[in-house]
């Protein structure tokens, strides 16, 4: 009797775990493996089709630097405070020049003592990947410590803010501002799309912000301009990554492309990691939308190729 009961419980557990795990799209996984083969660095890809429930995963549980994609967990941390009534998008804030931080973004060029608000901070952080507003948002969200506790509550084991966060110096030295895995970061965007992140209203507003990316010349360049996407890019010298949700006609799909230890650390259009992102994005669009008459413009390079980053 005891053995029989144990067997029933074991089978029930296996059945439950199987039900929680998405079905693998083996063909897609093989095709993606072929695409990233030979990449001069470490690459990971996670793809999930929300309509079919199928996934493809290559190094999807490997930890990669987030670079600016850490701004997605920061955004979630801000909206958690908003949901609790501790912050409001209409909160008035005063910018001062001591907050200026270089790199990407616009607020570093604001005049000292400019009046702004939380909505502007959040929108600039996501749309233009503004570093000054991102650090300010991290502070308003309670710092990396509180954001990391929230990530843990959401069931994420590896997605963390490292910079300016107590106890994470070694992680910061290895991964920079933040760290994640392709599967974990994609799961946040899936929850957001399903209106399950913080609250339905919070999910909707965060998704609106993520649907206005300024950086359209990487993976987004391979998706028709009339199809809505939600995205965030992250880039430093030896790591280029991208998170994208595509609201495609045949069903939504999400993908996360992560790279690290990249040999090509250039900032030209033809950077190897950026070529990989475009290639994977174009492949996924044609894979999930085979009847589409859209194909990425052959002359895209003529338009964008001479841009110096």
**Helical content class:** 40-55%
Question: What is the percentage of strand-forming residues?
Answer: 15-25%
The fourth-level CATH homologous superfamily of the largest domain is DD-peptidase/beta-lactamase superfamily
**Order of helix and strand elements from N to C terminus:** HEHEEEHEEHHHEHEHHEEEHH
Structural class: alpha+beta
- What's the arrangement of strands in the largest beta sheet? 1-3-2-11-10-9
CATH domain class name of the largest domain: Alpha Beta
Protein name: Serine hydrolase
Pfam families: Beta-lactamase2
GO molecular function: hydrolase activity
Keywords: Hydrolase, Signal
What does this structure look like?
This protein is an alpha+beta fold. Helices cover 41% and strands 17% of the residues. It contains 11 helices and 11 strands. A 6-stranded mixed sheet has the order 1-3-2-11-10-9, sandwiched between helices. A hairpin with a 6-residue loop joins strand 10 and strand 11. Helix 2 packs antiparallel against helix 10 and helix 3 crosses helix 5.
């Amino acid at each position: 009797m005891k053995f029989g009961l144990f067997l029933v419980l074991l089978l029930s557990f296996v059945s439950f775990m199987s039900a929680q795990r998405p079905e693998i799209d083996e063909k897609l996984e093989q095709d993606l493996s072929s695409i990233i083969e030979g990449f001069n660095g470490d690459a990971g890809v996670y793809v999930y089709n929300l309509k079919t429930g199928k996934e493809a995963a290559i190094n999807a549980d490997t930890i990669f630097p987030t670079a600016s994609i850490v701004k997605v967990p920061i955004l979630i941390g801000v909206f958690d405070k908003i949901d609790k009534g501790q912050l409001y998008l209409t909160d008035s804030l005063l910018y001062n020049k001591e907050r200026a931080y270089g790199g990407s973004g616009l607020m570093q060029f604001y005049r000292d003592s400019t009046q702004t608000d939380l909505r502007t901070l959040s929108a600039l952080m996501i749309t233009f990947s503004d570093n000054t507003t991102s650090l300010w948002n991290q502070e308003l969200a309670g710092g990396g410590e509180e954001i990391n506790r929230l990530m843990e509550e959401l069931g994420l084991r590896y997605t963390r803010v490292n910079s300016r966060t107590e106890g994470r110096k070694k992680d910061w030295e290895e991964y920079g501002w933040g760290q994640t895995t392709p599967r974990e970061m994609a799961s946040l965007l899936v929850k957001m799309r399903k209106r399950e992140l913080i609250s339905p209203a919070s999910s909707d507003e965060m998704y609106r912000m993520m649907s206005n990316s300024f950086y359209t010349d990487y993976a987004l360049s391979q998706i028709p301009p009339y199809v809505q996407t939600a995205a965030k890019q992250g880039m430093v010298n030896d790591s280029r990554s991208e998170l994208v949700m595509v609201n495609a006609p045949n069903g939504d799909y999400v993908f996360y492309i992560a790279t690290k230890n990249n040999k090509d650390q250039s900032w030209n259009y033809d950077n190897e990691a950026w070529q990989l992102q475009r290639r994977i994005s174009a492949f996924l669009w044609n894979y999930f939308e085979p009847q589409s008459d859209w194909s990425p413009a052959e002359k895209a390079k003529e338009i964008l190729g001479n841009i110096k980053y």
